[in-house]
């Protein structure tokens, strides 16, 4: 199981790095997944990720419980409400799938609102 978590952490880190350059791939959730995998499998990789000059600041506040920057919350919520309704109403034909996408957007927004915030 340890090797599976290490491999999943490495893959999540790689995809998170790609997500920095490609806006369709979510960077921070993938890095959080990598941190969770590394926390359970490799202290060395976990520390490397949290102390990394570029990647560490993106997730350190969430991991240590101090919260995420308000600007990041606003950006994430804005992106959710720009992209999901476009997909739901311009691309998707099935009504049940539209409702599901909007419900997911509401869930993501609620989760982000209730996360602890910190000023930059």
UniProtKB/TrEMBL annotation:
**Transmembrane residue ranges:** 74-92, 99-117
Which keywords has UniProt assigned to this entry? Membrane, Transmembrane, Transmembrane helix
Gene Ontology cellular-component terms listed: plasma membrane
* Tagged with keyword Transmembrane: yes
Which PANTHER family is this protein grouped with? INNER MEMBRANE PROTEIN YBAN (PTHR35813)
> Know the name of this protein?
DUF454 family protein
């Amino acid at each position: 199981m340890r090797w599976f978590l290490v491999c999943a952490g490495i893959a999540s880190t790689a995809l998170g790095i790609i997500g920095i350059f490609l806006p369709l791939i979510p960077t921070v959730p993938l890095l959080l997944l990598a941190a969770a995998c590394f926390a359970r499998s490799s202290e060395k990789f976990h520390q490397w990720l949290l102390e990394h000059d570029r990647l560490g600041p993106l997730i350190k506040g969430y991991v240590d419980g101090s919260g995420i920057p308000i600007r990041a919350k606003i950006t994430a919520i804005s992106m959710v409400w720009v992209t999901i309704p476009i997909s739901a109403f311009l691309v998707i034909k099935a009504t049940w799938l539209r409702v599901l996408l909007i419900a997911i957007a509401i869930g993501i927004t609620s989760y982000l609102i209730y996360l602890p915030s910190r000023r930059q």
